[in-house]
Amino acid sequence: MLGINRKLEELEKAGGQIKVGLVGAGQMGRGMVSQIENMSGMRVVMTADIQIDNVVNAYMKSGVQDADIVKTNVLEEADEAIRSGKVAATTDAHLVTSSKEVDVIVDATGVPDIGAKIAWDAILNKKHIVMLNVEADVTIGPLLLKMADASGVVYTGTAGDEPGAVMELYDFADALGFEVVALGKGKNNPLNLSANPDSAAEEAERKGASPKMLASFQDGTKTMVEMTAVANATGFLPDKPGMHGFVSDVKGLPEIFQLKEDGGQVSNKKIVEYINGVAPGVFAIIASEKAEVNHEMQYLSMGEGPNYVLYRPYHLTSLETPISIARAYIYNEATIAPWEGLQAETVTVAKTDLEEGQFLDSIGGFTVYGSILSAADAKEKNALPLGLVDRNVQLKRSVKKGELITYQDVVQTKESTIWRLRRMQDDMLSSQS
User: Fold this and answer.
1) Can you tell me the mean pLDDT for 389-415?
2) Measured between alpha carbons, how far is 342 from 139 in angstroms, rounded to an integer?
3) pTM of the complete model
4) 98 by DSSP, 3-state: which?
5) Bridge partner residues of 312 (DSSP)
């Protein structure tokens, strides 16, 4: 099997290319467009964003000339632009998912409900879909995966995001026959469950980031969502609700992940976890029962055992997404997907005291944060999945800070795609049990 770089070079030499359609020209999308413009055998031929200037800016920063950017909301015009070697810029995501000139769709919106619609439409149009939208994936991923399989297309998360990077370590270790004890990622800021766009504003301005996005990192929601995606791909579960959030450097990880009865700090194996002190890296804790394997691991300076750490000190977010695009198109392979079904759930917790009649906002906002539970625990508590939270969800009762919000506690005042698909998924999973 040739490497992806050589496959892409072959494709370009043969006069072909993977034609990518992108929805969302924010920070992640812009970086991906520029990265792909450097590559052989691939191009982002159409991009949609609610702000057309964001699309034009993304293309021009990647080196595309203004004259080669066709702004249109008419499908025929967009397709003709692509056929003539130009790129299409639109405010209508439906053009991207329905165009016959697009092979692979990338959702970089970060909004669960929008991502749900994009993925659904992509699959119905028999196009591979790459999700940078982990929030949508952990909410309805099992349904989307089943639909994609039935349609003969690939549904996948992305290389470069932490779940994809963790999955690469897991696949490597599992293929070699190691026991995989734990999978995890670093958190690069202290946990602040009260973080909101106002409290994050100053740091966000310094970093050139969205205050809302930064708040979703600080309050732990993104970490919970990311490790939920890993759980659904592997069957690993949190050792306790919300995980532990240990503090350690890389060297200390093998000891932490020994069982408590053996002097460690966890109660189970096959767990997902996050660590303060190893960001921006991801890790897998592995072990072996074979004396010769342990001898060689020690010889290779991997530690004294019985646990060893595989550590990747970087993840390049959307700059690595082209690898997932190519794997889907060339090999019909996913980087990460919820192969084990709904194993874990990121549930909704009140960030502050909330009043009856109050509307919730969204991830990284002022009202709620996410916490990981096993899916069985979440179902027993009737917990509201965080990916269903938006400004159309209203509280039917007052909820105290730190209290779990359940389905009974809310009313949906306007139908949304992700709620409809989640009901379909719940029905599908119930029929399988």
Assistant:
1) 97
2) 9
3) 0.97
4) helix
5) 282
